[in-house]
Amino acid sequence: MFVSVRKFVSVTFFLTAALTLCQPLYAEKLVLYHTSDIHGYYFSRPGASGAPTGGFAVLENVLRQESEPFALLDSGDFSSGNKEANASDGRYSIELMNAAGQTPKNVSGKGYAALTIGNHDSDFGADTLGKMLGGFNGEILSVNIEGLQVPGKRTAPYKIFDWNGKKVAVIGFSMDGPGMSGMELKKLDAAAWEKLLKEIRAQKPQAVILLAHDSIADARKPSQLLDVLAEAPSAKETINVFLGGHAHLRHAERKMGAGGPLFVESGSMLEGTSRVVLDFDDETGELRAVSSEYITLDPAKWGENKAVRARLDQIEDQSLKRAFAAVPALLPKYPQGADAAPDVAKRLADYMKKWLEPQEKVDFAMFQLPGVRRDLNAGTLTGRDLAELLPYTEYVSTFNIPGKKFKQAAEASLKCNADGKNFSLFAYSDNVYIEYKCRPNHKKRPVKITKILLNGKKMSGRKIYRAAAIAHIPDGYFEGAPFKGYKYPQKKIYKKTSGELLFDIVEQLPGRDAASKQLTAPKDLRIVQRP
Fold this sequence. Notes:
Layout: H1 5-22, E1 29-35, E2 45-46, E3 52-53, H2 56-64, E4 70-74, H3 83-87, H4 91-99, E5 114-115, H5 126-133, E6 139-140, E7 145-146, E8 158-163, E9 166-173, E10 184-185, H6 190-201, E11 207-212, H7 226-231, H8 235-238, E12 241-244, E13 250-254, E14 262-266, E15 272-280, E16 287-296, H9 299-302, H10 306-315, E17 323-327, H11 343-356, E18 364-368, E19 379-382, H12 383-389, E20 395-402, H13 403-412, E21 414-415, E22 423-424, E23 426-428, E24 432-438, E25 447-454, E26 457-458, E27 464-470, E28 492-497, H14 498-507, E29 527-529
Parallel strand pairs: 1-4, 4-5, 5-6, 9-11, 11-12, 12-14, 18-27, 24-29
Antiparallel strand pairs: 1-15, 2-3, 7-10, 8-9, 13-14, 15-16, 17-19, 18-23, 20-27, 20-28, 21-22, 24-25, 25-26
Helix pairs in contact: 11-14
């Protein structure tokens, strides 16, 4: 039978349209935007090159230009670490995360879909953390936290999301912090992980995401997860993407053996975000590929969203724009030269000892490398730079320590690296001189201290010395672990914070004004490697 071309085209169009309407209108790609360790860095600020970088206003423009369906996820340490975040007990962080991604492509409607809790999110205490999280619109995920009370919400170990027709499981993993009193972080062994993963697999998700405040890519901050997941037989096959944090790295690399999940860590301080693409087979719906790219939040490229920028202007503490001094050359957080002692920490150790002298006799002082939060770039040193460098309320303390114990702790705090970029977790005041050897094949003592001089004389292993440090060090917390474990430290705490020490150092620099004052690195060598 003869059919006209016009009628054939009409019928074909009708059938095609009908078939199309019968098919689910789901994209085969789903994008995850990942952040971690925001630490209250809401605004663009000068980067290493001096050009502005980062911030929520730039992130918003990146999200609004996304053409694929997407979800926002954060790996923790979002709420504490900058002046505005600390002043609001982290509530500004929640407000800005709730408002992010105001575009129809955001599969959660708007805002972050989920977060987990980092070690600094509890800085304001468990009650404050719970109240803050009560205002979060997304899911609070943590497989290992117990006892966190969140008004009107609950913390779940994982969540199966239906994102644009795709079932995506997201598991949360938190890290212990100083304000965790009232909460408990349980340890999961390989068997516990196997049980959890079996439960998730039974729900047949098309992708499984591990959202963790943990890094498997930085030897300076050993992973709490890598070893136990390596022992869980199905972890490598079940988990598709490991979104990590804590080490402040811009890093993406497969780490859990051949065919293992893609590990992604997205830097820190909202300088950038990772764009992770989940590519599903459009016929079977199975996940066929995962890829990632790091996007620098460059205002020159992306611009700043006007509405978000206006809110940031209301939030920003304008007093922090004041200039205090000049930094002629980069002062890196980690040591770069022959000295394993970090430069800014050296200055803090020196001034801590000086400040204590009128109050009590102190043999030496030390300051921890992790307490210095970032590099100090060359240029004008503002109040914001000072606030960001040492953002936490950490008090000066003094305590007794036997010479033998100090040597053991100092040795344990030294790290030798294959690339020769060795570092100490502590800088000691300028009256302490240490020489050491690297022994990479020695499992128990990969570093050996061969000489310790105090005021030019050999330190005695039997003598009790009076030392100064930030108050959590003699308690053995975090990097202070090697200093714990002896009797009668006779600890005394002073109401002087590390941030106040830093402000004093800058205020006392020679010079009449901010332009003439120069903050530079100490020139002496204090912790030196010998063959």
